[in-house]
Design brief:
- It is a single chain.
- The protein is mostly beta strands.
- The protein has a single domain, classed as Phosphatidylethanolamine-binding Protein (Alpha-Beta Complex).
- Helix content is 6%, strand content 33%.
- The protein is built from two helices and eleven strands, in the order βββββββββαβαβ.
- The protein has a six-stranded antiparallel β-sheet, with helices on one face. Strands 1-4-7 form a three-stranded antiparallel β-sheet, with no helix packed on it. Strands 2-3 form a two-stranded antiparallel sheet.
- The longest helix is centred in the last third of the chain and has 8 residues.
- It comes from Marinobacter confluentis.
- This is YbhB/YbcL family Raf kinase inhibitor-like protein.
- InterPro entries: PEBP (IPR008914), PEBP-like_sf (IPR036610), YbhB_YbcL/LppC-like (IPR005247).
Length: 207
């Protein structure tokens, strides 16, 4: 199975058009275009009945106290955890593409609705937790929201775009399901997977 994410080459920086946050010299960060990239896939195994599309960042600090704080850095030695940016499930077996901008085109304060979307069913991404303390932005974030790592992080973040071919038509998920729920539901049903990894940073010393 093969995946292509238009505009993103494996191991290369992700273009700002796909980012939630872009570098801003005055304020460190400002909102980006936040478009979902086009994802296509082929060479699908026989018996495929549905697909899952996801994107996650495995480099998010497990302790975020110093994130985006003036005069501080997020140490490279802090243990890192997965942060889900995009969860689409139950894409039909006939599908082979998620068009650019169909699941996200701009930053939506308080988030997009989870549930049935333009393509597949949207899960809830981790901006839901990340922005919970911001009264202007707090809400439930469904679908795609792009990279926005701490601007004072000592490491460059990696973003895994993945497609999984499954042997079931539906994972049976509904409501505000998250990345852990998707992984649990997929267990034992994955026929094949493919991945492209892009990088991103808002730290001017690493750009």
């Amino acid at each position: 199975m093969e995946i292509n994410v238009r505009g993103i080459e494996d191991g290369q920086p992700i273009p700002e058009e796909f980012a939630f946050g872009v570098y801003n010299e005055q304020d460190h960060m400002s909102f980006g275009p936040n478009k979902n990239p086009e994802v296509t896939w082929d060479k699908v195994p026989e018996g495929t009945k549905s697909f899952v599309v996801m994107m996650f960042d495995p480099d998010v600090p497990s302790i975020a106290d110093d994130a985006n704080q003036e005069g501080k850095v997020v140490s490279k030695d802090i243990p890192r955890v997965d942060f889900f940016h995009w969860l689409l499930v139950d894409l039909p077996a006939s599908s082979s593409r998620v068009p650019e901008g169909v699941d996200s085109d701009g930053v939506i304060p308080k988030g997009k609705e989870p549930g049935p979307g333009p393509v597949g069913i949207r899960g809830v991404n981790n901006f839901t937790q990340f922005l919970a303390g911001n009264p202007d932005m707090a809400g439930t974030y469904g679908g795609y929201d792009g990279p926005c790592p701490p601007w004072n992080d000592e490491i460059i973040h990696h973003y895994h775009y993945e497609v999984h071919a499954l042997d079931v038509e539906s994972l049976g998920l509904s409501g505000e399901f998250d990345g852990a729920a998707v992984r649990e539901a997929m267990a034992g049903h994955v026929l094949a997977s493919a991945r492209v990894t892009g990088t991103y940073t808002l730290n001017p010393d690493l750009r």
